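Hey, resending since the last one bounced:
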Amino acid sequence: MVDASWTDIIQKADIVLSVIPPRDAVSFAERLLREFNLVKRVHKDPLVFADCNAVNVGTIKNIAALFSDTPITFLDACIIGGPPSGNYVPTVYACAEPIDEQGLRQFEKAVSKSGIKVRVLSGEGTGISDASALKMSYAGISKGLTGLFTTIILAAHANSPATSDALLQELSESQPDLLARITRAVPAMIPKAYRWIGEMEEIAGFVGDGEGDIYQGVSKIYSRVERSLAGDKTDVETLKDFVEAAKKRI
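The structure tokens again:
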């Protein structure tokens, strides 16, 4: 991987993938469009721009609208899974409006060559927002559960160490699979909590008022973990202690 100027990107790139914190997705797309209007492309083929960020359907539709009536082909995409490691690779899901089918297939072919799995969303009613909705749904379950684990571990400990110990004992006896997941999910979350704050806010918007409020709460717990990690680390140590004790019970 090498750094590239905006001029190089606009002139020479076939495909641009945006993989950044959700809060920056709109401003990055706006910047790309501004730069595109200032630079003459070397390639004759249209530039394909794939937004792969964890944003809700309203946000992705607003981003897509920026590229309507432009020569840029816009794709809605999402990444499910962590960074490539060993034999593991994440899966990229992508979709587009029917008029942009050629750009979608170009994206599928190019990204697949890199060794990453690509799945094109198709079927009745498929269009911009389907990949983002999938990301919101999947992360709402996976990262939402981790947020619930974190919330209750901290709440039990705040009540008393005895409550925390009793919770651990009961989980080990009645929910061993859940406890095993806690030992994997919570430690992996701690260094990533800062990235998941905005993602939970996007999921709250995707779910909607009322029911979506639960994800505003999860966003707050990830913000709390981020502050602890940067500060006195009290909450972080509480989580780590619970996990270490849990490992001895499973």
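Residues 138-248 form one domain.

Sorry for the duplicate.
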